[in-house]
Specification:
Layout lengths: L2 E7 L4 H17 L5 E3 L3 H13 L8 E3 L11 E4 L10 E4 L13 E6 L3 H16 L3 E7 L1
Parallel strand pairs: 1-6, 1-7, 2-4, 2-5, 3-4, 5-6
């Protein structure tokens, strides 16, 4: 069954949300997990692509923006605003404002939230959708 984890940050800064996501993505990569990062649009995908190169000195996380074409290498973190390819659905970072589609093969969904009211309203809706789908939902307060 899919497990959903909501990480609630105490900051209202969008950059803090993305930096926290980068840290979790790096941890997943070091544990041999290749994930998909779902975004709302190409601009957000590009921002995350840039941050994954620069958020920590010496960090290397192979990643690329997914446009529907096969990735250039097999073991890579994919970022995109379209549905994840079948081989990248096991771990999903949902940084978008929408409920992810086609999550039947997804083992874990990570939602990272800041204190911005717009972000919280969309997250509450997704939280209810996850619960209605019978998924195991957990929350973690991050100080």
């Amino acid at each position: 069954m899919t497990e959903v984890s909501f990480y609630l940050l105490s900051s209202d800064l969008l950059l803090e949300r993305y930096l926290f996501a980068c840290k979790l993505i790096e941890k997943a990569y070091r544990n041999g997990q290749f994930c998909y990062i779902l975004t709302d649009n190409d601009e957000q995908s590009q921002l995350l692509d840039d941050l994954l190169w620069t958020f920590r000195a010496g960090s290397f996380i192979p990643h690329e923006i997914y446009t529907g074409q096969a990735p250039s290498i097999d073991k890579v973190i994919l970022i995109g605003s379209i549905n994840a390819p079948m081989h990248s659905q096991e771990l999903l970072f949902n940084l978008s404002s929408k409920y992810p589609e086609n999550i039947s093969k997804t083992k874990r969904i990570l939602e990272i939230l800041d204190t911005c009211e717009v972000t919280k309203v969309a997250a509450r809706s997704r939280y209810r959708q996850y619960q209605q789908a019978g998924l195991n939902v957990k929350t973690h307060n991050i100080e």
